[in-house]
From TrEMBL:
Subcellular location, record wording: Cytoplasm
Main location: cytoplasm
GO biological process: one example: division septum assembly
Keywords attached to this entry: Cell cycle, Cell division, Coiled coil, Cytoplasm, Septation
Source species, domain of life: Bacteria
Name under which the protein is recorded: Cell division protein ZapA
Its job: Activator of cell division through the inhibition of FtsZ GTPase activity, therefore promoting FtsZ assembly into bundles of protofilaments necessary for the formation of the division Z ring. It is recruited early at mid-cell but it is not essential for cell division.
Assembly and oligomerization: Homodimer. Interacts with FtsZ.
UniProt KW Cell division keyword: yes
Pfam families to which the protein is assigned, alphabetical: ZapA (PF05164)
Length: 104
């Protein structure tokens, strides 16, 4: 699925989407992540295609992009909630430490 030509630490990766090949610049250390993302995108495009509606490539890609963006936003919101929970736990722990120090 990919060919890479080295140019410093940036590589040109050939990816295939909808049976078309695209050259994508990619940092060498992010190549695996990019290829996983392309795999996910291809999987979602295939799901969209298999639903039976005749969508042109652009519309199908747009629908997949919107769905993936929504997934990303949900993940960000969940991360923010977890970070807030951790801040609250940290505050509680700090209060306990402060009380313990005050009791000494």
């Amino acid at each position: 699925m990919s060919e890479a030509k080295s140019s410093n630490s940036i590589r040109q990766i050939t990816v295939t989407l909808f049976d078309q090949h695209y050259q994508v610049p990619c940092a060498e250390e992010e190549q695996d992540l990019l290829l996983e993302a392309v795999g996910l995108l291809n999987q979602q495009l295939e799901v969209t295609r298999s639903r039976g509606k005749l969508l042109n490539r652009e519309r199908a890609a747009l629908m997949v992009a919107v769905n993936l963006a929504a997934d990303l936003q949900r993940a960000r919101q969940a991360l923010e909630e977890r970070e807030q929970e951790l801040r609250l736990v940290e505050q509680r722990l700090q209060q306990l430490v402060d009380r313990t120090r005050g009791a000494e």
